[in-house]
Amino acid sequence: MDGAFLLLLAALWALSFALLRGLARLGRAS
Amino acid sequence: MAGSSFTALLVVFLGLTLLGVKPLGHYMAEVMEGRSKLANAIGGPLERLLYRLGGIDPALEMPWPRYAAALLLFNVLGAVLVYVLERLQGVLPLNPQHFAGVAPDTAFNTAVSFVTNTNWQSYAGESTLGYLVQMAALAVQNFLSAATGLAVAIAVIRGFARHSAVTIGNFWVDLTRGTLYVLLPLAFVLALVFASQGVIQNLSPNRAAHTLEVTHYENPRLDATGSAVTDAAGHPLTDPAETQTQGLPMGPVASQEAIKELGTNGGGFFNANSAHPYENPSALTNLLQLLAIFVIPCALTYTFGRMVGDPRQGWALLTAMLALFVALAALGYRAEMNGNPLLAGAGIDSAASATQAGGNMEGKETRFGIAASVLYASVTTATSCGAVNSMHDSLTPLGGFVPLFLIELGELAPGGVGTGLYTVLVFAILGVFIAGLMIGRTPEYLGKKIEAYEMKLTSIFILATPVLVLAGTALAVATEAGRAGVGNPGTHGFTEILYAYSSAANNNGSAFGGLTASSVFYNVTTAIAMWLGRFWPIVAVLGIAGSLAAKKRVPVTEGTMPTHGPLFVALLVGSILLIGVLTYVPALALGPVAEHFRLVAGH
């Protein structure tokens, strides 16, 4: 159970980081 | 008479807040840029020691993606630490009530909640958490989550203040300075004041008090396995019981209470939050709490004006924020004083008089009354605080609409520590963009051209939270697991769910109540809303800051729209209301609006 919640936390962090990467790439392109 | 007490309280409260705006705003601009000689003399050695321990070069500034990456890393590690401390509390010290480790879903929800400055609580502090977790996990995050918001606001200000720059500051330096020089000193002084006024501060186990009167109550009958025994109709069976002992919860409350308000966190040491006399014992502590919630977000507008070189820009933002706040708070007060028309119809006198408060006193503390309760409910939701001194579920439908709508506007009137300023700046960008569209000119704000990239990020910022609120609410009402938590089916139950996701995704943390939100479904879905509602907008606004910092400054011409006058304030307020109303009217119509009309119709 602990593993599942820590994985979910990692997934939320990854979703935020993915937005960061996407917006940084968008910024370089524009 | 009753109306004048609210007006007087509002005038005193706003007057005292405004007195603090300039000095605190000036101070924050100085310390966050490392220019305060006094702060450097007192805290400099500790600040430099922290950088040395962390291997940080304070002179090394970051481009926005690095700033955001550092922020995300710091916060995810903070959440892991809070989670581990909660799960292990059964074997950790400073746990005089010997509470077991917190259940995994509650620990996860709470860790995300405190790291994101939401402080939504699906647990009761006095029956779940030991003092170590309260202090080392929750109170620490109260400081750090507020300092994170402050850091983002300062980075965004630099985006406007700088030109042709590739960096927006150093996240570790901003975080350290915000904590050391702004939050810690204010919280230290306020905690001492609270303690002097009766807010408790100790590490004692709970105390048992012998009551003068015998309390009679019904004790649930349990079978051999500890499950409730029910009759044929499924109703629980009870046995009469009596007691003359009352348990009094103890703990280090004052130290947590101060940062709970100053950091616009809002998570109560006790389940009753600031309605509990050990957290908020008197009218004086109540006023101090209101001021502590408002002063940093309001002062940050002056910090902004000073850092961009024109304090009038900050005053214009503050005027727009407070105009929204006053209008909605006054609406809430009027609704609560009107009370419940069904009671009047039943012949119950609910008019204000010398012997009673009148109006709707349900869910409110008699020592605060309607004026101070409505003001608290408005202040806590106009910011991202979420502390409560009355139960919002007991507000009249229109009275409940006010805190809900203040949250849904994005908590920018004046908003949380840092979050309020950067949210209103995003709406300022939207406002000048709309004005630019209307008159056919390239929009500018503070000498920076607002172009396609900034507008894309502005759209992401503004849309992220409503998507989480409305999708979360839709999921909850469409699933059995979501509906299982509803205690008041119908329009009121819908409002309870809408409020829960509005509060979570906007990082407010107050609960409407009435909703059993301690289930795995609500613990997981509100945690997702809290995390994404916090960090998606932060990433987007840091992107805007990075882009603006890199731009050249456009000279002021005849065609430049002034952004420090009443026209801009009206444009800003209009943009905020336009987005808020267009986004949430359908959902609000199903909740508090429908409930209001049902009440008027006599249902």
The count of helical stretches of chain B stands at: 19
Please give the number of β-strands of chain B: 4
- What gap, in angstroms, lies between the N and C termini of chain B? 30 Å
Largest sheet of chain B: 2 strands, antiparallel
Share of residues in strands of chain A: under 5%
Helix content of chain A: over 70%
Uncertain regions of chain B: pLDDT < 50 for 5+ in a row? none
Q: Number of DSSP helices of chain A?
A: 1
- As laid out across the biggest beta sheet of chain B, the strand order is 1-2
Which geometry of chain B do the CA atoms define? Answer: globular
Helix content of chain B: 55-70%
Which structural class matches the secondary elements of chain B?
mainly alpha
Give a quick precis of the structure.
The complex is a heterodimer of chains A (30) and B (603). Chain A is mainly α. Chain A has one helix at residues 2-29.
Describe what this molecule looks like in 3D.
The complex is a heterodimer of chains A (30) and B (603). Chain A has 30 residues and is mainly α. Chain A has 1 helix and no strands. Chain B is globular, with a radius of gyration of 24 Å. The two termini of chain B are 30 Å apart. Helix content of chain B is 62%, strand content 5%. In chain B, a hairpin with a 2-residue loop joins strand 3 and strand 4. In chain B, the strands form 2 sheets. In chain B, strands 1-2 form a two-stranded antiparallel ribbon. By secondary structure, chain B is mainly alpha-helical. The mean pLDDT of chain B is 96.
Please outline the helices and strands.
The complex is a heterodimer of chains A (30) and B (603).
Chain A: H1 2-29
Chain B: H1 2-32, H2 37-54, H3 64-87, H4 104-115, H5 125-128, H6 131-161, H7 171-196, E1 207-220, E2 238-248, H8 254-262, H9 283-307, H10 311-338, H11 341-345, H12 369-382, H13 397-408, H14 419-439, E3 444-445, E4 448-449, H15 452-478, H16 480-483, H17 491-505, H18 520-550, H19 566-600
Helix pairs in contact in B: 1-9, 1-10, 1-12, 2-7, 3-4, 3-6, 3-18, 4-18, 6-7, 6-8, 6-18, 7-8, 8-9, 9-10, 9-12, 10-12, 10-13, 10-19, 12-13, 13-17, 13-19, 14-15, 14-19, 15-17, 15-18, 17-18, 17-19
